[in-house]
Design brief:
The protein is α/β, with parallel strands linked by helices. The protein has helices at residues 5-18, 77-90, and strands spanning 22-27, 36-43, 46-52, 67-75, 95-100, 109-110.
Length: 115
């Protein structure tokens, strides 16, 4: 059984904060199943954006996990904002969580690439 978005985000905020980094919910989405987008702020001018991985990225043994894919890397804040605005136009129930002071890859599972 998959955790609700609200519960999952709450747990992420707590884990990141306990690690001594900064984590804030910039936008609350649908409590039950809103898509979660993560912004990893590296500096004032450098951000990465992670979006939910496509459903076809999940293996049979990963039905309850949340996978993310890198959408933008080393982007400006305005580039991230433009992308998130497009996502909000498509789905108004998205969550946006911003993390600063750590590597987001320590807290979420990323989609495996076939390199």
């Amino acid at each position: 059984m998959r955790l609700t978005s609200e519960f999952w985000v709450s747990a992420l905020v707590r884990r990141v904060s306990n690690a001594g980094a900064f984590c804030v919910v910039m936008r609350k989405g649908a409590a039950e199943a809103g898509a979660v987008f993560l912004v990893n702020r590296r500096s004032s001018f450098d951000c990465d954006l992670f979006s939910p991985a496509l459903q076809m990225s999940y293996g049979e043994d990963q039905t309850s996990e949340r996978l993310f894919e890198e959408r933008l890397t080393h982007a400006t804040e305005s580039e991230v904002d433009v992308q998130l605005q497009k996502e909000r136009q498509f789905d108004s129930d998205i969550w946006i969580v911003e993390i600063e002071g750590c590597d987001i890859k320590d807290f979420v599972e990323l989609q495996k690439t076939n390199d």
